[in-house]
# Entry
Amino acid sequence: MKVETLERLNRARQAGHPSLLITDIKNGDQSIVIGKQWSGSIPESIILNDNAARILREDRARTVESDGRQFFIQPFNPPLRLIVVGAVHISQALVPMAALAGYAVTVIDPRRGFANDERFPNVTLLDAWPDEGLSELAPDARTAVVTLTHDPKLDDPALDVALRSDAFYIAALGSKRTHAARLERLATLGHDQAALDRIHGPAGLALGAVSPAEIAVSVLAQMTQVLRRRDNTA
# Structure
């Protein structure tokens, strides 16, 4: 790989743009795809299927065949992000688990008695109102958003912004009854059924979780499932 090629890919990654490096295995020709922009000696028409999207989704390089030629496709994805709304007990368990799984984590909570360095050491904290904090962070397709406060004044504004973003995972804590009422409120803000269906509520896989740590495990498991199995989520 040429130095200038690597520099372009790294700049794109730092700017939050998913990118691909496509190499013709036989002759070494290369092309770069940054977002939807294609540049290089391999024509765009050579990739005629969903291999590129799949490789970005899986975060794993693979060799594919197209038009009788073999190509090695490498993903250069921005880091995964998790935005947690609510500096609560479940957040204290979820944050370090998500960090171990490779997420850059930010906790948003305007209540400084909850969101402080003592309860969340070495964690990025925003004391902004959740909708303002989320708008500032601009969730993208590599971002998960989880609301955990149980307070509609905090969770609803965050979910409103998240539903207008490309976040790959949106979840909210609460019972089925709580979630049904939440959906009604969000519908009044202009969200249709397709948008509301993006919210995983109650948050997490149905593992029978009880403790904050167990609930955190169920949420992280569901995040992983959605991220890695977007074509056939169970």
Notes: The chain has a mean pLDDT of 89. The first strand starts at residue 19 and ends at 24. The chain has two domains: 3-76, 80-228.
